[in-house]
Amino acid sequence: MKSKVLILTFLLITVVTYSKTPKNVAVGNAGSLISLFSSEELNITDSLVVSGNINAQDFKFMRDNLTVLSFLDMSNANIQQYSGVSGTANNTNTTYPINTVPNFAFYTGAWSGKNTLKTVILPKNTTSIGEYAFRYCQGLVSISIPDEVASIGKEAFLNCSKLKSVTLPKSLIKLGKYLKNDVCSNCEGIFVGCTSLETIVFQNNIEYIGNSTFNGCSSLASISLPETIKYIGTAAFGNCSKLATINLPNGLLDIEYGAFSGCSSLNNVELPTSLRYMGREAFSGCINLSTPINFSGDTILDNSFSSCLKLEEIRIKSTTKVIGYGILSECLNLKVVDAPAKLINQVLTPGYSFSQYSNRFSNKLQLVKINSDTLKQMGVDFLKNSYRTIKSIDLSESVNAELPAELLSNFYSLENLSLPKSIVIIPYRGVSDCVSLKEILIPASTTDIEMRAFENCRSLKTINFGENSQLKTIGNWSFYACHALENINIPTGVTTIGDGAFWSCDYLKNVNLPSSILSIGDNSFEACKSISKIKVNAIIPPALNDNTFNLVDKNIPVIVPEGSLIAYKTTPIWKDFKNLSSSDINSIDNANQLQYAIFTKGQNILINNAMNCKITVLDVSGRIVSTIQKATEFEKICIINPGIYFVKVDRQTTKIIIE
């Protein structure tokens, strides 16, 4: 019995020793590898070194007959062309090219590959790896690909779940096929599902990474792409759940649909300035992406950054074409947006109510700049979702003549606001109750400030008006309870100030009213108890109501145009001010900074350089003496009676004396 055990032990040791010694074979005629094996060797050969000539028949033999093959070195072999039904395509009449690892080389079909295979060294003169060559070889750990390989076929290494590293060859320019706007119906998936792949070495020649190439490579932690990369295809790195960093080189042009979608560990991405196209869902689901996004390309598509939960800042160039919807959906920590209006106008697809889905969008915005396009209601709703937190909004570059009513009402953290340069009407309660707003510029294009537009902006200290302001009307209660306002210099052109417009502006000290003003409404300056000076540039006293200046000290100085003092002293309400005085008309409305040449010669007023302007001459009582609707380059107006006259050219007023 003891002797039998010893014999059995010897045989086992012999088999193990034999199986771990590589079998070296030199194949003379391609297709004859099978003839170099005994039937016993078929089930014990786990290491094989092949030289000589082989073809698809030999690959089929190694795949189907060497049942425990683990190590395969073909570095000194030559792959020959073969045509017939005995190749790796299983009874299909196929032509297999020279120097090409055949299609289905180690894939048997039915989602099964040669799982015993762990290490493969390909022939040195291999130029191509065929489709499905190592598909589902789930034991493959290492593959040596020679530098002469210029193409790798579809799903060549799909689900090689133990493959740890890949060094791509120097001749490889196109890794798979790149199909623009493809939604993965034609996915290449060369390394898809290689869940143990940790290292990819790219040579400095590859130009594009095809669709789904590394999708689902869940052990891949970092990627360094060469400077030659121009295109990253659909889902190329999708669902690489451990991928934390990737460098995107300058020279990269396109990132396609879902290229990095589901890369849940990705936290650091810097988009190159060369990037021109961002596909649908490109970074969707990158829940840890936190570095600021700056995209200066031509086109960005829908959902490209959706569900980037930690993303705080996104900036998109003003000329970028925004296509589709939901780019910022589920970006719940977003704080800074600098982008075309379309980006926020299209946060939801048409037909959906923002109020129903508001919890899908950030309520933590702090700084927003709209750098192009027209802001619409959906965009306004997006902003309102952060009414508690927004500190700065810049709409100066948005193309809005009008904005929705109550646009920014109750944005109580808002400190800085720039309105659209093209805005004509500031709407009802447009900026009301913005209690932290300190300063506002009313653009030159604005003609009307509607009722309650800035009501209760109690920190508003300064109101500036754009140069050559077109403002005509300041509506009822428009600046009511702007307690911090200290000075108001209303621009020339304003004809009407509505009821209660500046009521209860407690700290208002100086009021400058333009020459164009015709009427000031009831309670307009009521309870402005700090007013210490009023300057009125209107030759004819503006119409007032009984309570226009109610509770304003009537002993403060009120300065009116020279020659109009008697008119003010005899006009109801104005005459109640006890310290009325006149000033030189030349100081009115910046009249010292003349654009037109106005001078007298005898009884003639000579006006030069006022082409196409309206000219009006008034006497000291405000009566119109002469009018020219559309002046020529040089005008001469004869005045019969000597005295003081006022010449208005457009909005500029000048005093002259006819002797």
Helical proportion, percent range: under 10%
Fraction of residues in β-strands: 25-35%
> How big is the Rg?
41 Å
CATH uppermost class of the domain at 419-583: Alpha Beta
> How would you characterize the largest beta sheet?
8 strands, parallel
CATH architecture of the domain at 419-583: Alpha-Beta Horseshoe
Overall 3D geometry? elongated
The helix count comes to 6
According to CATH, the homologous superfamily of the domain at 419-583 is: Ribonuclease Inhibitor
State the CATH topology of the domain at 419-583. Answer: Leucine-rich repeat, LRR (right-handed beta-alpha superhelix)
Q: In terms of per-residue confidence, which ranges show pLDDT below 50 for 5 or more consecutive residues?
A: 1-19, 584-594
The end-to-end span amounts to 149 Å
Structural class computed from helices and strand pairing:
mainly beta
Strand order of the largest sheet: 22-24-26-27-28-29-31-33
Number of strands: 48
- Mean pLDDT over the residues: 91
Description of the structure:
With 659 residues, the chain is mostly beta strands. Among the domains are: 21-154, Ribonuclease Inhibitor (Leucine-rich repeat, LRR (right-handed beta-alpha superhelix), Alpha-Beta Horseshoe), CATH 3.80.10.10; 419-583, Alpha-Beta Horseshoe (Leucine-rich repeat, LRR (right-handed beta-alpha superhelix)), CATH 3.80.10.10; 591-658, Immunoglobulin-like (Sandwich). It has 6 helices and 48 strands. The strands form 12 sheets. The chain has an 8-stranded parallel beta sheet with strand order 22-24-26-27-28-29-31-33. Helix 5 links the parallel strand 27 (367-370) and strand 28 (392-394). The longest helix has 19 residues, at 2-20.
